[in-house]
Amino acid sequence: MQKIWFITGISSGLGKSLAEKVMESGDFVIGTFRQAAQVEAFNQQNEGRGFALQMEVSKQEEVKNAFKVIEEKFGRLDVLVNNAGIGFLGAIEEASVAEAKDIFETNVFGALQVTQAALPIFRKQRSGHLFQISSGAGMKASAGFGIYNASKFALEGFSEALADEVKPLGITVTIVEPGPFRTQFAGTSIKQADNQIEDYAATVGVFRKRMVEVVNQNQEGDPNKAAKIMVEVARLENPPLRLPLGKIVLNAIQAKLDSVQKDLNEWKEVAASAVF
Fold this sequence. Notes:
By secondary structure, the protein is of the alpha/beta class. The protein is 50% helix and 16% strand. It has helices at 13-24, 36-45, 60-73, 97-125, 146-166, 201-215, 223-233, 247-272, and strands at residues 4-7, 28-33, 50-54, 79-82, 87-89, 128-133, 171-178, 190-192, 242-245.
């Protein structure tokens, strides 16, 4: 049976590649853009294969209206992909609270709003697959990425809990953890702290410069291959809770697991002693 997908943020990057792969597979895409002209162009080019809506995940009324259209026009939803997100570079001390809130509005609260809007449809159907596009940065933090790390850690936290909550209802959750992929993430899609402190030049400053001047457009990840994998995973009876994508992210996650295991081993007796 043809699946109906709802993907946020399909104008570029992984979202665009995924929308194209979904349509190529014979499934139907409902996707979001921020600009009306983008919506019109997509609908003209993909009649019968896809349908676009103008929506920003951080705007609650736009999210509500989008799901009202989905229910009225299509009557069901099989796969939701929370793809829309923002990157951020800056030391923890450099980032203002306003800048951090801006990142969380999209990466956490935006994803939460879309998730909550889709769940009544999934519960009614007793079926549905939710992909949360996190990042390797949602598992392992690094200097210069702290605010972005925090937003993806938060996304992973509520998504992991959600997976347990909805499993008995026939709904599955997959947290996708891409490493560096060759999109505009490290270019036009990333924000930077307005304040830059010289004391962090050797750590955060080096990371910032490397992201913009070296990593951008030289990433190992192929978004088309990632999209193909996600389409295949959506057809599995028992999809994984976590789906790392890329060689670099595999090494990063393993390093995090090794670090946690080291602390557990070294401090196990002390930890166990802190009880009545």
